[in-house]
């Protein structure tokens, strides 16, 4: 989707840089430019050969869904839109890579002086980008999971959410995932094996991810909750408890019509996406500590 691909592209570049921090640190030690790093070359190839074309295909195949039904027929789309769409899908990935690379470079130079292990705060860039991605996708779940085209959307037709799981758009996304997921998982796994080389590195990475995920979720949830409370109209004839109960839709917060349903959609999207992102990290072997090694012997 156009609205989320800007964050998705950034996160791809950032996650490729973050997971290849081990090799990037070596390049920095040899004072080689960032564009010569194998992970950066791969980032360019992935964005230009896989990610950008997939977005253009979805925009052409189903412009309503790809634009979250802001657009309709292909005749409504000016030629400049797909041009900018493809351009930003590559450019923002480069920016994501460079921002993360710059953070790794700064931490590496400090580590050279102090000889401490490299902090993993550079992972925050791709995590926060994914949180923005999930906020738009999850809060707009009615648009993301709409199983029909823009004609039905503009006509106001509603479908059960379960219809999405048998829709053509879902099977299109799954077909693309057959190519996209291995193209992401395999290099990330290989890079992580060369980055998580010290005892406890995998645990530190997991805790770092959890910290920044909770940080992002807390910020988004707080802002959304503040917005709901700000524009909630209290009934002066009701008690405080009754107004509070009305604020939470009298307990019907799981309904699609609830004012809180976008927040629930965000939580579901954040959980699902972060679990998918964590897959290659999960399979990276942990490096045992010296004590554990001696104990096993």
From TrEMBL:
It comes from the Eukaryota. Keywords: Membrane, Transmembrane, Transmembrane helix. The chain crosses the membrane at residues 6-28, 40-60, 80-101, 122-141, 169-192, 204-229, 264-287. This is Uncharacterized protein. It comes from Lobosporangium transversale.
């Amino acid at each position: 989707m156009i609205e989320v691909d800007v964050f998705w592209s950034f996160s791809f570049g950032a996650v490729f840089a973050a997971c290849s921090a081990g090799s990037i640190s070596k390049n920095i030690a040899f004072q080689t430019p960032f564009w010569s790093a194998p992970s950066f070359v791969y980032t360019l190839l992935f964005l230009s050969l896989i990610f950008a074309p997939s977005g253009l295909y979805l925009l052409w195949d189903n412009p309503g869904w790809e634009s979250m039904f802001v657009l309709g027929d292909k005749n409504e789309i000016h030629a400049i839109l797909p041009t900018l769409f493809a351009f930003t899908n590559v450019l923002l990935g480069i920016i994501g890579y460079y921002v993360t690379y710059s953070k790794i470079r700064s931490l590496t130079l400090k580590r050279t002086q102090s000889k401490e292990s490299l902090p993993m705060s550079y992972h925050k860039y791709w995590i926060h980008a994914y949180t923005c991605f999930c906020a738009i996708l999850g809060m707009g779940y009615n648009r993301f999971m709409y199983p029909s085209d823009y004609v039905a959307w503009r006509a106001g037709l509603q479908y059960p959410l379960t219809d999405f799981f048998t829709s053509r758009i879902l099977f299109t996304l799954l077909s693309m995932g057959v190519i996209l997921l291995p193209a992401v998982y395999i290099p990330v796994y290989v890079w992580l094996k060369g980055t998580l080389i010290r005892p406890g590195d995998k645990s530190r990475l997991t805790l770092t991810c959890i910290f920044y995920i909770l940080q992002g979720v807390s910020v988004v949830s707080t802002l959304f909750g503040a917005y709901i409370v700000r524009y909630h109209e209290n009934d002066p004839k009701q008690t405080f408890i009754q107004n509070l109960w009305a604020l939470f839709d009298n307990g019907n917060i799981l309904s699609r019509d609830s004012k809180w349903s976008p927040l629930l959609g965000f939580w579901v999207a954040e959980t699902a996406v972060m679990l998918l992102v964590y897959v290659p990290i999960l399979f990276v072997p942990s490096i045992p500590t010296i004590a554990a090694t001696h104990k096993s012997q």
